[in-house]
Amino acid sequence: MPDETATDAPANWETSREEFIAQWGALGSNWGINRTMAQIHALLMTAPEPMHTEDMMERLHISRGNANTNIRELIGWGLIRLVVKKGERREYFEAEKDVWKMFITIAKERKRRELDPALTVLRKCSEDTKGEAAGPGKDFHRQMKELQEFVEFGMKVSDTVASMKHASALQWAMRLLG
Fold first, then answer.
1. How confident is the model at residue 175 (pLDDT cuts 50, 70, 90)?
2. Is-contact 123 148, C-beta < 8 A?
């Protein structure tokens, strides 16, 4: 009778992990990052131990250049970090595993990369057209001012949520949604 514990099939968690990595990669393009960057993030986020670049390349079937470019970008986002292992020459990487910290990091980085520049343009457009007295110019100024105020409000809400502890933010959200 064959040993039922010995099998070449991957464990359930490994199969689920592969599905998660694939889906996280697909979602990445919706969030403005490329599929490989999201897949590397998912791989490291779910890795039991820090991984080196060669392991990531093999696991995701990507080139060294693609891996290195995306690893550096993830470090720039603050989502992964370099781990030094004594006696090892290779670089190892690990991802932030705390979901709340990860959310805050992504929110802050997206604010810096996307909202701050947009707000700069809205403020300039509003300021440059504040003297418009009538017609399309006045309408344009009003629209830019309203957009500016809306984005500023959203950023204040985001900053407030980001400054909260996880449990407090969940309680606040439940009251808001309830």
1. confident
2. yes
Domain boundaries, the chain: 12-95, 99-177
Place of tokens 């403020």: 123
Q: Closest by alpha carbon to 41, among 13, 76, 86? A: 76
Count Cα atoms within 13 angstroms, Cβ side, for 150: 8
Between CA 43 and CA 35 the distance in angstroms is 12
pLDDT tens readout for residues 88-147: 899 999 999 998 899 888 888 889 988 999 999 999 999 999 998 899 999 999 999 999
Find the angle CA(12)-CA(51)-CA(100) to the nearest 5 degrees.
Answer: 75
CA–CA gap between residue 40 and residue 55 (Å, rounded): 11
Residue 146 tokens read as 């309203």
* CATH class held by domain 12-95: mainly alpha
Q: What is the maximal distance between C-alpha atoms in the chain?
A: 90
pTM confidence score: 0.77
